[in-house]
Write a structure and sequence with these properties.
The protein has 166 residues and is an alpha+beta fold. It has one domain: Lipoprotein localisation LolA/LolB/LppX (outer membrane lipoprotein receptor (LolB), chain A, Clam). 22% of the residues lie in helices and 39% in strands. It has helices spanning 2-22, 92-100, 108-113; strands at residues 35-44, 49-58, 63-69, 72-79, 83-85, 88-90, 124-125, 131-134, 138-142, 146-151, 155-160. It has an eleven-stranded antiparallel β-sheet with strand order 6-5-4-3-2-1-11-10-9-8-7. The relative contact order is 0.13. This is Lipoprotein. Keywords: Signal. Residues 1-23 form the signal peptide.
């Protein structure tokens, strides 16, 4: 009986010590630290049609858009060296043709999602606290909490959450 109790106590101590010593004291740091903002996003393009809420995640190397419908992941777009939609990746110019309907420059979609001026051109200030740009086939406007991009074949519009209702 004493041997059985000693064995159980030894085994319990051994397993407890084993699991505690293997546990990480500091959680692993995720190398992909993203800054995020909630958005209501409308995308109408030759590739997808979506109008739901989601998140835009930014970091220095990539940009990620995640759209949810009824709490389930519906659409994920990751822009880095390649552009991936729901894990299917494309070269940027190929993606632009499929998604936006034209070649454009490689980073146009990332610039739209980050609400940056297009083609490195100086934008015109507008009345809503942002800027506007117009090109032959593109109308682009950034306001305080809304970004709108329209071309002949695509429309991307999103409104960021600033503790307001969408």
């Amino acid at each position: 009986m004493k041997k059985m109790l000693f064995f159980r106590a030894f085994a319990l101590s051994f397993f407890a010590l084993f699991f505690i010593s293997c546990a990480s004291k500091n959680p692993a740091q995720n190398s992909e630290q993203y800054e995020s903002k909630a958005v209501q996003m409308l995308i109408i393009s030759p590739l997808v049609r979506i109008n739901d809420a989601g998140f835009i995640h930014f970091n220095k190397n990539a940009l990620k858009v995640q759209i949810y419908s009824a709490g389930a992941g519906l659409f994920e777009l990751k822009i880095a060296e390649k552009i991936c939609v729901n894990s299917t990746c494309y070269a940027p110019k190929d993606f632009n043709v499929k998604f936006l309907g034209d070649i454009y420059y490689e980073n146009i979609l990332a610039d739209v999602i980050a609400s940056k001026p297009l083609y490195n051109r100086k934008p015109q200030p507008n009345l809503c606290g942002g800027f506007s740009q117009s090109f032959a086939d593109i109308s682009y406007e950034v306001c305080a909490d809304k970004t709108s991009f329209k071309s002949k074949k695509a429309k991307i519009e999103f409104r960021a959450s600033n503790d307001k209702e969408f």
